[in-house]
Amino acid sequence: MNFLIENWYLFLVAIVSGAMLFVPALRKSGSTTVTPAQAVQKMNTEKATVVDVRAADDFSAGHIKGAKHVSLEQLEQQLAAAAKNKANPVIFVCATGTRAVKAVAVAKKLGYEQVQTIAGGMKAWREAGLPIVTGAKA
């Protein structure tokens, strides 16, 4: 017991250093949303794949350039074809962000490491004045 009392600072250092190792892990797993501007940055710098999980008609009416269309119902079967590398970022988008959250859960279950949604979905993308393209090309 004397050892503990006389060397309390060693235990404090051990606890603090352990906490410092644990904090980055919390940050990495925390946020699953990005702003439209952050999504563009990830697309340009990290080669993020954008997967649109809206209905085919909505996708054809206007989508993010380069986005792959995979309906939420078919995501488990078709995500591997749309986003081949599970280590690269995948950004899901829907109309307002609600369905994309479900897509994140499916992607994590399939082993994708970096999955996020665009906060506010296509609505936020349009409000940010970012370009959209029309047509069914995925």
Automatic annotation (TrEMBL):
Pfam family, one: Rhodanese
Segments crossing the lipid bilayer: 7-26
CDD domains tied to this protein: RHOD
Family annotation (Gene3D superfamilies): Rhodanese-like domain
Keywords, in A-Z order: Membrane, Transmembrane, Transmembrane helix
Source species, domain of life: Bacteria
Rhodanese domain mapped to chain residues: 44-134
Classification via SMART domains: RHOD
Coiled coil: none
Stated name of the protein: Rhodanese-like domain-containing protein
